From TrEMBL:
It comes from the Bacteria. It is found in: Cell inner membrane. Keywords: Cell inner membrane, Cell membrane, Membrane, Transmembrane, Transmembrane helix. Signal peptide: none annotated. This is Paraquat-inducible protein A. InterPro entries: PqiA-like (IPR007498), PqiA-like_proteobact (IPR005219), PqiA-PqiB_transport (IPR051800). The chain crosses the membrane at residues 51-73, 93-125, 137-163, 175-194, 259-283, 303-330, 351-372, 378-399. One of its GO terms (cellular component) is plasma membrane.
Length: 424
């Protein structure tokens, strides 16, 4: 006799608002939205045991990465090694509090809260005396923090930093660096193992069942909770399963997204005009802007790294702002054409946005590593903070956009399937 992993029979897609019936699922199964193809549920085999193993190993690797020296630096006969902890204390000691705070949140605080919440949850599933409210808090933390885990971006940042200072000094990768690589890989694996619908199903069980048919929740006078996937009645203000506030369409979504886009566009100007990094070499200080850094790498023939920085710092933020602005425009004048492609574009903007942080991390790494007074030193320029604001604002803009608006003039599965065939 086979049991489904899920108690509930229906779930509403957060991308297109369609109500889906959940078939019986077992470990290793994936379930996609029948209308837009978005993956709604992906539960791995022996998922609890795997989260426990991978999550614990990830924390262990972090402890190792904090214990030994991280990177070594030698220039003109002077050697220097820094630990991961020192990279932070140098930034704080130089008075770059915001940069230090960004690094500690992205590298340590968010991942540690994320991993410990996941481990606590998996442990609590075996333990019936655990408070349900504690479990709910943990699931909320996991969902909210996931887009802000940036350890993989930091790792790429380290590699870019190595190429950037190649002409000034020799950099060596120490023991902790390899432990840090393990930490990053294991954390990414933990993220892929965690499924929000599975967690809510385990923690809060079944939501109130409603009579449903094919089509969007809105047309059936229902609301889909975008936080847990529950299907609720139209007059609900809060989800009776996860407790999150619910709306048929996020209120003022387009207005919020547009305001955040304008804010990021405004910040983009100082981010490119002012220097992002200042290098002191043998007494003379030279500032460099984002584009200046790309051009310098290009003249030094580090083409791949120049292209990485060009894409991450220039192309991605601009493309993301343009894409979101176009999607907002499309919601004001909706058409039935190309909705699936628009959703793909939206998912892409959500996915790539955080990679723009590479340059900020590169500056932070170089600042903490290259500190030898007048001989050679690197400091962050004023553009670092405005550039970070650009990335954070565009990420928030993507999050506040409600993709369900794109489907609102769509007539449901019939129109979607006719899309390809209709020739006029
Ligand atoms: Zn969907
Ligand atoms: Zn909910």
């Amino acid at each position: 006799m086979s049991h489904s992993l899920f108690h509930e029979n229906v779930t509403t897609c957060e991308e297109c608002d369609h109500v889906n019936s959940i078939p019986p699922l077992k470990g290793g199964d994936r379930f996609r939205c029948q209308h837009c193809g978005h993956i709604l549920i992906s539960v791995h085999k022996h998922v609890s045991a795997r989260i426990l193993g991978v999550g614990l190993s990830s924390l262990l690797m972090l402890a190792l990465a904090m214990s030994f020296s991280f990177l070594g630096f030698s220039s003109n006969g002077i050697d220097r090694t820094v630990s991961l902890f020192q990279t932070l204390s140098v930034l704080l000691g130089l008075g770059h509090l915001v940069l230090g705070a960004i690094i500690s949140l992205a590298l340590f605080v968010f991942p540690i809260v994320y991993l410990s919440s996941a481990l606590f949850l998996v442990w609590s599933f075996q333990n019936k005396y655990v408070l349900k409210s504690a479990q709910r808090y943990c699931v909320r933390w996991i969902i909210v923090l996931q887009p802000w885990l940036m350890v993989d971006v930091f790792l790429v940042g380290i590699l870019v930093a190595l190429v950037k200072v190649n002409s000034l000094a020799d950099i060596s990768l120490e023991l902790s660096f390899w432990a840090f690589c393990g930490y990053v890989l294991l954390l990414l694996k933990t993220v892929t193992l965690i499924d929000k619908r599975w967690l809510w199903n385990k923690v809060a069980g079944q939501a109130t069942e409603h009579e449903v048919e094919q089509g969007t929740a809105k047309k059936q006078n229902l609301i889909g909770c975008h936080f847990c996937g529950a299907t609720l009645s139209r007059d609900a203000h809060h989800c009776d399963r996860c407790g999150h506030s619910v709306h048929s369409r996020r209120p003022n979504s387009l207005m919020t997204t547009s305001a955040l886009l304008i804010a990021s566009l405004v910040m983009y100007i100082p981010a490119n005009v002012f220097p992002i990094m200042q290098t002191t070499f043998l007494g003379s200080t030279e500032p460099s802007t984002i584009m200046g850094g790309v051009l310098l790498l290009w003249t030094l023939e580090s083409y791949p790294v120049a292209l990485i920085i060009l894409f991450a710092s220039v192309v991605i933020p601009i493309a993301k702002m343009l894409a979101l602005a176009w999607l907002c425009w499309q919601c004001c004048y909706p058409s039935q054409r190309l909705t699936k492609q628009k959703i793909k574009l939206y998912k892409m903007t959500e996915l790539v946005g955080r990679w723009s942080m590479i340059d900020v991390f590169v500056v932070a790494i170089l600042t903490s590593l290259v500190q030898m007074g007048n001989l050679v030193s690197i400091f962050p320029g004023p553009a670092v903070l405005s550039f970070t604001a650009v990335i954070v604002f565009t990420m928030l803009a993507a999050m506040s956009f409600d993709p369900r608006l794109l489907w609102d003039k769509d007539d449901g599965p019939k129109a979607a399937s006719l899309e390809g065939e209709k020739v006029e």
